[in-house]
Amino acid sequence: MESSTIIRKMMAGNEIMVPTYQRAYSWETPIETSDRKTQTDVFLSDLEEYSRSNAKTPYYFGHFLFEEKNQKFKVIDGQQRLTTIIIFLSALFTKLKTIRALSEKEQFCYEDMIKRGSEFRFLTVDYDEQLFIDYVINQAKSDHNGLETESSRRIVRAFDFFKKQLSEKPEDYLIKMLSIISEATCTTHPVQNESEAIQMFIFQNDRGKRPSNLEIVKAQFMYHVHLYGNNDKDALVKEIKNRFEKIYKSISSIEYRINEDDVLLYTLRVYFNSLWETNSLSRINKRLVEDNPIDFIMSFTNALSKSFEYLSQFFGADERTNFKIHSLIALGGIAVALPFIIKAYRYDLALDEIGNLCSSLESLVLRHRLIGTRADITSRINDVFEKFTESTKDISPIIDRINLLKTTTDWWWAYWNNDKLKESLQGGINHSVAKYILWKYENHLRAQGKAGYILRYDHIMLPELEHIAPTTEPELKPHGYDMYDDDFRNQFLNCLGNYLLLSKSHNASIHNDSFPIKHQDYKWLEQQREVQSLVPDPSKDIWSRDIIKSRKDKIINVIMSNC
């Protein structure tokens, strides 16, 4: 490869692939319900802006760093851009072929950049490779079934997005885009020495767009092994690569649930047995300059791999089968709980025990989110975290400590007690927490009545918080709500008694209607039917402040009894 070249020459005749110890495809694609900019639409808009500019200089795609071995090139830096280029070009060639057959020049371009015979110019990580070939390159697959990783779903979304964007484009547009990309300039740096490649990755990314802390740690570990691994270097590097292959496979299945750098931090807290660990890179860098960093590197990499494995199980199969785990995850904001969870899996606790631990931690997290005190929770629970060890495997001190926090009146411990909780439930509540509370209340009503089965939170289609009496008074009167005076607006509109859990589509259909109209449509959840029972005849009775207060008190009593 030439150090300064064009994209087509860089790819022609070469085999470029993403090694399995590197991150899989991570660029996001816009969705119809959001106007948020993502990497793929910025990629396209930048190309189109360049096309309109009539610039005299070629488009520039940046720098690519490769490890070269046996005429094969492993992408160390730049694979997200390169993956997107191939996805876009494949969609472009597909559209062009629907207009006419490729010219000889275009066919050569396709063979140089996409595929010649059975030779692929670029392939992604091996666990997404077949999907990449089938969906993007050969297009033998068109359905979305069997997408096992989040990275594979991103590949599919990006290809579908580009196909849709190109579907109405004229031939001239396609030809110009093909020319812009194939003739775009780039710089490359292939190295034979893996240590040099890793060192360059660290150097470049400390000065450019910063990668994740996890990626930096991986590169640092591999570099230190190259420096200090001596005769065991090759075996140690291979082990690290294998560990990170597992880590990235785990990330692709849970990254929509949790941030990878957070998992790194939680692992650090478990590894050093302290919830006070707050800066992953600083702590790891400090340890790497101490004597014999190799032992630390290998043991921590193993612990990190295990943490991702445990959390994949926790957010995956166990969340689907254990309702207590599902309930904690549904609450969200559970960073304080996850180091405890990692330990529980590490010590091979039974799933029922993990579920009980989740329930106890859930009550603490809920209180912490509702009460909103500035008091530090870490100082109140770090000691029981430290004593939760493999030799004891005992969760009872953790549960006892949380129960103490819930009941004590001692000032230093009492920020999360029942009095504080009850006080926090009186007025307006953060909407995400309010939805969670109403879901818990829904399951309480189901347990009392004939509905029977427990409702999972994710079985409610896009749950939203409905104000039964709308925050803005309906213009048409009579509307069936109490008088909209200052007392009603300040004390009753924004409280649990006036909140209702609805699906997004249901909420949109009844947004600001009068109470009699809403009343007849409240029939899907038990809490909606309860509202109907509280006002049996809305033609005669209104949704009053007395009813709102009574319902609020009932919901609070349920939460106090269960949390």
Instruction: Determine the structural class based on helices, strands and strand pairing.
Output: alpha/beta
Calculate the terminal CA-CA distance, rounded to whole Å: 63 Å
How many domains? The number is 3
Helical stretch count? 25
**Helix residue percentage:** 55-70%
The largest pleated sheet is described as: 6 strands, mixed
Strand order within the widest sheet?
1-8-3-4-2-7
Rg, rounded, reads 29 Å
Strand content: 5-15%
**What best-fitting shape do the alpha-carbon axes yield?**
flat
Low-confidence stretches: none
Mean pLDDT: 91
Describe the structure.
The chain has 563 residues and is α/β, with parallel strands linked by helices. It has three domains: 189 residues, no CATH class; 222 residues, no CATH class; 132 residues, no CATH class. Helices cover 58% and strands 8% of the residues. It contains 25 helices and ten strands. The strands form three sheets. The protein has a six-stranded mixed beta sheet, sandwiched between helices. α3 packs antiparallel against α7 and α11 crosses α13. The longest helix has 29 residues. The chain starts with a strand and ends with a helix. The model has no long low-confidence stretch (mean pLDDT 91).
What are its keywords?
563 residues, 3 domains, six-stranded mixed beta sheet, two-stranded antiparallel sheet, 25 helices
